[in-house]
Specification:
The chain has about 375 residues and is mainly alpha-helical. It has helices at about 15-30, 40-50, 55-85, 90-115, 140-165, 170-190, 195-220, 230-270, 275-305, 320-325; strands at about 350-355, 355-360. It is globular, with a radius of gyration of 23 Å.
Length: about 375
């Protein structure tokens, strides 16, 4: 039981309070840190970071395992389903990626939801509690350690998958950076025993991936077998609206006001001179900036919907031959060139050999 458990829960701040208090606290911490530098960082790392060889081995094994599980499901389940549903070739090429991510994120977010709302952890309702009774090298509860192993190894796999298995998109380079930052946050937060706030961060981000992949699958399914399916069209539109709302609510409202306020302000109140204070907050702020970056794509998408135009993925690469064909400049364009993903977030490169293989990648 936390020593703070009897205290009243601190109300969630507003944006102005977050900015004013966080900036004041961080500036004060910077001024007070007279010996900040490489030497202090080295000592803090040696004194506070805790990883065992078993944990490192499990990470690499599970990252490899996720890759093999994805390949197995793609060949034995997702591709046969795409054939059975008679998806269009361009949709059949991208459907396995979305199906795999939907399966994983549904599982991972459900587990995070269980930890936050169906156990004794009060991190969501009382974010400052993530730092109560923190001690260097403290033991990590098994249920949280399992969540960290699942998520950390998956993002290790995802760095490889984004480059070699997924379709290449306009924001794929940003996605690689996102995965690296996320993996760094997961590994370092576990090593420094900031696992409580890590569970909260994962919960606030995974829900959007579920809605995204669900929406994309219904976009693929609404035009299959030469027919049009109204139910899948309605579900894709509902998923798009839900995705847009929850992206703002979870990543741009709850994430800064719950997580960043706790890490910037509450952490120093509970643990003065908490290790790697600036490093962790810099990574979380970078994550917030990427959330804002992707939210711009969502805003463009919503504007297109309001104008009642055909919704295309705004990150899609324009294929020059397809554009020329549309202008009547080519007589015999290849049928797959110039096609665009009707999904609102993730899109394929101009050419696909199969899911996981992308030809002619361009940044």
């Amino acid at each position: 039981m936390s020593a703070h458990s009897g205290d009243a829960v601190e109300p969630m701040p507003g944006y102005l309070e977050l900015v004013s208090r966080a900036s004041a606290v961080m500036l004060g911490a910077w001024r007070d840190c007279g010996d900040c530098g490489v030497e202090l960082s080295r000592r803090s790392l040696l004194d506070n970071a805790n990883f065992t060889c078993t944990e490192i081995a499990l990470f690499f094994f599970c990252a490899f395992l996720w890759t093999q599980v994805r390949r197995g499901l793609t060949e034995c389940l997702f591709k046969p389903l795409a054939q059975w549903w008679r998806l269009l070739p361009k949709d059949a090429a991208k459907m396995p990626e979305s199906a795999w991510k939907l399966v994983f994120y549904t599982m991972s977010w459900s587990y995070s939801t269980y930890l936050l709302f169906f156990t004794s952890y009060s991190f969501f309702h009382d974010p400052p509690s993530v730092f109560y009774n923190w001690k260097s090298g403290m033991s990590v509860p098994l249920d949280i350690a399992i969540a960290y192993l699942i998520q950390g190894s998956f993002y290790g796999h995802s760095i490889y998958a984004t480059v070699y298995m997924d379709a290449w998109r306009k924001d794929s380079a940003v996605m690689v950076v996102h995965h690296i930052i996320t993996l760094a946050l997961i590994c370092f937060s576990y090593a420094f025993r900031y696992h409580n706030v890590g569970i909260l961060v994962l919960f606030l981000h995974d829900i959007n991936d579920i809605q995204l992949e669900f929406t994309k699958l219904n976009v693929y399914l609404k035009s299959r077998g030469g027919g049009y399916y109204l139910l899948n069209d309605v579900l894709s539109n509902m998923g798009s609206v839900s995705f847009s709302i929850t992206w703002f609510w979870f990543r741009l409202y709850w994430f800064p006001l719950k997580v960043l306020y706790a890490t910037c302000v509450s952490s120093l109140q509970s643990v003065p001179n908490i290790p790697f204070y600036f490093f962790f907050n810099a990574l979380l702020l970078a994550l917030l900036l990427m959330n804002i970056y992707w939210f711009l794509f969502i805003v463009i998408f919503v504007v297109k919907v309001l104008k009642l135009k055909e919704v295309n993925d705004v990150r899609e690469y324009e294929d020059e031959e397809g554009k020329a064909a549309a202008a009547g400049l080519l007589k015999d364009p290849e049928p797959e060139n110039g096609e665009r993903d009707a999904g609102h977030h993730h899109s394929a490169s101009a050419k696909h050999a199969q899911n996981g293989v992308t030809k002619e990648k361009h940044l």
